[in-house]
Amino acid sequence: MEYQDINAAAITQWIAEGWEWGRPVDHETYERALAGEWDIVLTPTRPVPHEWFPDLRGRHVLGLAAGGGQQMPILTALGARCTVLDYTPAQLDADRMVAEREHYIIDVVRADMSKPLPFDDGSFDLIVHPVANCYIEEVLPLWRECFRVLRPGGRLMAGLDNGFNYAFGDDEERVVNHLPFNPLKNPDQMAQLDRVNDGVQFSHTLDEQIRGQIQAGFRIVDLYEDTNGAGRLHELGIPTFWATLAQKPE
After folding, report:
1. What pLDDT is recorded for position 142?
2. pLDDT attached to residue 1
3. How far apart are CA 168 and CA 174, in angstroms?
4. What's the domain of life for this entry (predicted)?
5. What percentage of the chain has pLDDT greater than the value 90?
6. What's the topology of domain 3-162+203-247?
7. In whole angstroms, what is the distance from residue 235 CA to residue 200 CA?
8. Chain segment 27-56, per-residue pLDDT in tens
9. DSSP 156-169
């Protein structure tokens, strides 16, 4: 079995157990967005600054590995024409459910983001990519694909795991792993994930995550840090995530 399929199976189980990133927005949240009261997140706690967004009316937005019915309904309420790509069918089902409930159209695509994206060059004005590339081994090819499918001047908003979580044990009390965390190359790390049904996950460096966007052709416009939102690292104020706003040159 490919590791991407292992991850889809793990995420499906997490959703059945109440995983927060698999719970779609309710009707009231959608109605508030229609009225101009909204936020979305790319990382656990900090909302994306509203100034990061262009006027979304009529804009083509790709939710990249963004299934779950959380970001796309909000952006649709703001006037965007949304496509959501994910590899876990249950996550895509959540977006279908919200679209049917709220009577809007969304394009739903099941695809593996570690492969070339199934879209023409210059298809989108904005890509919204919540934390998810921790589930793929190589991220530079993904950044290059994002650059390709964006129109000139298009924006990429990405939530990124900075790797700290993979260095610590589950109790976040001590460092137990060297980095990079790559279970395909380290059987002990794979065993750690298997014990708790955490799929197959990978740490990525600043070089891969941020420099990689620059290498793909993007200009970094803004960024911020975030914590886990709970647990010892959060209590100590240790950032474990980044979010970046990047732009494809005109």
Report:
1. 98
2. 84
3. 6
4. Bacteria
5. 99
6. Rossmann fold (3.40.50)
7. 27
8. 999 999 999 999 999 999 999 999 999 999
9. EEEEEE-SHHHHB-
Helix axes 27-34, 89-102, angle to 10 degrees: 60
Q: How distant, in Å, are the alpha carbons of 14, 107, 108, 157 from that of 160? A: 20, 25, 23, 10
How much is the pTM? 0.98
Residue 210: burial class (beta carbons within 10 Å; 0-12, 13-18, 19+): buried
Mean of pLDDT values over 180-198: 97
- Say if residues 166 and 179 touch (Cβ distance below 8 Å): yes
Look up residue 139 and give its DSSP letter: -
Overall size of the chain counted in residues: 250
Whole-number Å distance between alpha carbons of 96 and 122 = 25
CA distance 106 to 87: 16
- Sorted by where each begins, the domain ranges of the chain are 3-162+203-247
Angle at 233 between CA 228 and CA 236, to 5 degrees: 120
Cβ neighbours of 135 (radius 10 Å): 23
In eight-state DSSP terms, residue 47 is B
Q: Rounded CA gap, 42 and 132, in Å? A: 9
19: its two tokens: 């995983």
| Contact (CB, 8 A) for 61 and 126 | yes
* Helix segments in the chain, DSSP class H: 3-16, 27-34, 71-77, 89-102, 140-149, 164-167, 187-195, 206, 212-215, 232-235
